[in-house]
Every structure is written in C-alpha cells, then in structure tokens.
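Holo prediction — flavin mononucleotide.
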Amino acid sequence: MFKVAVFVGSLRRESINRKFAKTLEKLGQPSFAFHYVELGDLPMYNDDLWADPPASVLRLKADIASADAVLFVTPEYNRSIPPVLKNAIDWATRPYGKNSWAGKPASIVGASPGVIGTAVAQEHLRYLATIIGLILMGQPEVYFSFKPGLVDENFEVTDETTRQFLESYLSRFEAWISRVGEPKEA
Ligand SMILES: Cc1cc2nc3c(=O)[nH]c(=O)nc-3n(C[C@H](O)[C@H](O)[C@H](O)COP(=O)(O)O)c2cc1C
C-alpha cells in the first residue's frame, strides 16, 4: 500500500475537487492510503517566519516527507492554480537546501463543472512540479468534468466507462510510484 499526500487546491466545503479526491480514494483501495494535507491554516509565505516556524508549516513538510507520493487535485482559478496550492508549494521548498518535494513521485488531476476546465491550471502545475523536483507522471491526463450525478453521495462513480478510466489511471499511478519511488522497506 502506498501512502499518498493529497493536495486539494480548494478550501470550499462543497469542493468538487475534494469530492473527486474522495472518489479516487475509494476506487484506489486497498492499494493507496490517502492523507489529506491541510492547506487552510498555512500563513502566506514569509521568509521571516522561519525564525520560529509555524506548526502548520512543519506539519506540511512532515506530511510530504512521510508520504510515498504526492497527488494534486486542483481546480483552475483564472487559468492558473489556486493561491493556497502555490503557497503550500513555496513553503515546502524551503528552507533553502531542504526542499520537501525533491524526488517524490507525483500526479496531477483536476475537476471542474465545465468540459476543458483545469487543463491550463494543470499545465501551470506541471511546469512547477518539474522545477521543484517532483517526479511527475505525464500520462494519463485526467480532466474530470464533474457533471451532476456522475459521482453519488457515497463517492461512487455511476458511469461504467468513467469508472474504468479512473481505475486504469490509479493502476498507472501505482505502477509509477513502484517504478520511480524510494524502495519500500521489507
Ligand atoms: C476565483 C475563481 C476563478 C475561476 N477561474 C476558472 C477558470 O479559469 N477556469 C475554470 O474552468 N473554472 C474557473 N473557476 C470555476 C471553478 O472551476 C469552479 O468554481 C470549481 O467548482 C472550483 O472547484 P471546487 O469546487 O473544488 O472549489 C473559477 C472559480 C473561482 C472562484
């Protein structure tokens, strides 16, 4: 089983991206254990705060360190990524020389109410992911169009083709982590 640090780029209670993450979590059992990283209590990045680092920042770095892989589930905000996500990305790259992201297997997905939503945000995030040293899975791309009824109240996918696609995505992610991640202790 792989422990995955999940970064949902929305703080909204009814976030479709959080629902989508929960859907993937359910489909991915028992191969994955999802841990939802808290982003809402991170202060805006300020280098001065390293003098006495906030507990939320230390927790963020520990969450990444203890994970086998990282999964971003992000909405698109004005054709880019939401600020909560960028803020978390920046915090975890510091202090200089102690970048938490380096060498972690990662994947990016996103959900939107529209058809092509999150494509540009994901593209921006792919660029950042390589800069910060994540080992990013390129395929398959997942642009989840969150239509009413497609996911039920128990986070089950109601459409068979969509469910199969998401299962195959998760299998590929599992294989990616096995291939590029740190060897697991016996
Ligand atoms: C500030 C802001 C900017 C947005 N910009 C985009 C956008 O560029 N492209 C897009 O597809 N949707 C955009 N949306 C709509 C989001 O896709 C929609 O609100 C979605 O439900 C947000 O994800 P969430 O439900 O996980 O919070 C934007 C929403 C907000 C609040």
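READOUT: The chain has a mean pLDDT of 96.
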